[in-house]
Amino acid sequence: QLQLVESGGGLVQAGGSLRLSCAASGRTDSSYDMGWFRQAPGKEREFVASIGWSGANIYYTDSMKGRFTISRDNAKNTVYLQMNSLKPEDTAVYYCKARQVDGMDYWGKGTLVTVSS
Hints:
The chain is mostly beta strands. It has strands spanning 2-7, 10-13, 18-26, 32-39, 46-51, 59-60, 68-73, 78-83, 92-100, 105-107, 111-116. Strands 2, 4, 5, 6, 9, 10 and 11 form a 7-stranded mixed β-sheet that branches. A hairpin with a 4-residue loop joins strand 9 (92-100) and strand 10. The chain starts with a strand and ends with a strand.
């Protein structure tokens, strides 16, 4: 199994930046793709970005292209989400997800990002 812990959330003004981290522990010897999702109050969870094991195969939701950057450091078992030019509508709980080669998905508990106008 994998355990995922997100960090880096907080309160930021519109136009500001935050970098989220997601640290994996447990069965990190098996390759896994990573992704970020978010859930705003009263809304469904939505996809933000994902990155393959090798650092390739990077995908973003269109509305976040150019503002958000996903990256990973496999030596640290950590995936990052750099968020720039934040908007109030980016306010949400951000979750990371890992998918191992056997198809099992693991989720973190989330980190809250609040963007004030």
